[in-house]
Task: inverse folding
């Protein structure tokens, strides 16, 4: 299987709440569309410092993490961030990778979105068993 990328909308969830409380306008909600590597071998959502600088997600903590090449790095954990793909939405934290590292959509947000990696087409698709929306086992 080759690399799979998907176009994902990332939204500052704090801004969404502030807009609902009429503290900011809807047009002030920070959001960006990102072409992300879909990586079922990664657990979490990973963004880079450039995306974080734009979204201005609150830093919750710093965690020590092992990256794909085996090195250990300390990353800011930010959030909440809303993750949208087609008719799906998940809310999660994101790990901030250094510089302009490639952003990753990992297994935990993939599960919440109820999406599937279609190996033959090399693309991310919504779960055909639940086309109307995500179905989660809780």
Result:
């Amino acid at each position: 299987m080759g690399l799979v990328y998907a176009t994902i909308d990332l939204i500052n969830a704090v801004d969404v709440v502030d807009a609902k409380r009429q503290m900011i306008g809807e047009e002030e909600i920070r959001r960006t569309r990102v072409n992300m590597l879909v990586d079922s071998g990664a657990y979490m959502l990973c963004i880079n410092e450039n995306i974080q600088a734009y979204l201005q997600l609150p830093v919750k903590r710093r965690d020590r993490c092992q990256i794909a090449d085996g090195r250990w790095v300390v990353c800011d954990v930010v959030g909440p961030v809303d993750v949208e793909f087609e008719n799906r939405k998940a809310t999660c934290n994101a790990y901030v990778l250094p510089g302009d590292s490639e952003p990753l959509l990992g297994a935990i947000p993939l599960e919440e979105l109820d999406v599937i990696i279609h190996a033959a087409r090399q693309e991310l698709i919504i779960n055909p068993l639940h086309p109307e929306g995500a179905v989660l086992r809780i």
User: Anything to note?
Assistant: The two ends are 30 Å apart (CA to CA).
